[in-house]
Amino acid sequence: MTTGGDRQGAARDLALRDGVRAVSLADIADRVRIHKSALLRYFETREQIFLELTARAWRDWFGAVLAGLEDAAPGDAGLVADVLARSFAERPLLCDLIAHTPLNLERNVSAGSVRSYKLTSLGVIEKAAELIHGVLEDRTVTECREVVSAVASLAGATWQIANPPSALTELYTSDPALARACVDLEPRLRRTADILLAGLIPSRADL
Question: What is the count of structural domains for the chain?
């Protein structure tokens, strides 16, 4: 008998191999060797499986941010930007899932499933913002939350661009006119995080 962990593990492995978009409920059922109808006894839809997987991925991401900032010197915005960029770039599945969450995963599940997911993701982002505020005390928790949310959204969108299908990869590498279509995810996230963190204080309306 398979467990929920087995089913989520199968979804995770298939998504890492083929991309979230390509994985069907039948694929997951085949992987754990049960019928699709049996899988639906445990999950509402394919999207619910991936939404729960996204929540787990967010918790794992927060662990990396916590470890990365553990010994941060006060005011070290460069380290904060580096940790944010690296923590997403090292988690391709999370980046892929972030892009699909508002487009698909939240749209074919119950309100209860969305609420459970949102409590996890928003809670993790809040805790990360508080960590960053602990390093950069001249930035507010609200400002730090804005940065985390922006970098996360960029990670989801840019990961899709940085990991095109093989046919597009060949096209981009063979045509110099398309060279800029090839994006390196981590440096792009790092530069954006640097800019956002530097711009928080000058952009305040009361200054």
Answer: 2
- 130 close to 69: Cβ distance less than 8 angstroms: no
Confidence at residue 3, expressed as pLDDT on a 0 to 100 scale:
54
- Asked whether residue 206 is domain-assigned, the answer is no
End-to-end CA distance of the chain, in Å? 62
Residue 3: which CATH number? 1.10.10.60
Range of 57's domain?
A: 46-199
Q: Are residues 90 and 156 in the same domain?
A: yes
Q: What is the pLDDT of residue 4?
A: 52
**Percent of the chain clearing pLDDT 70 (strictly above):** 97
Radius of gyration of the chain measured on its C-alpha atoms:
19
- Alpha helices (H) along the chain: 4-18, 25-32, 36-39, 46-68, 77-89, 92-103, 111-135, 141-162, 166-174, 185-199
Same domain, 137 and 167: yes
Q: pLDDT-based confidence at 1, cuts 50/70/90? A: very low
User: Based on the domain organization, do 87 and 5 belong to the same domain?
Assistant: no
Write the CA distances from 199 to 130, 146, 163, 195, integer angstroms. Answer: 18, 12, 29, 6
Mean pLDDT of 43-60: 93
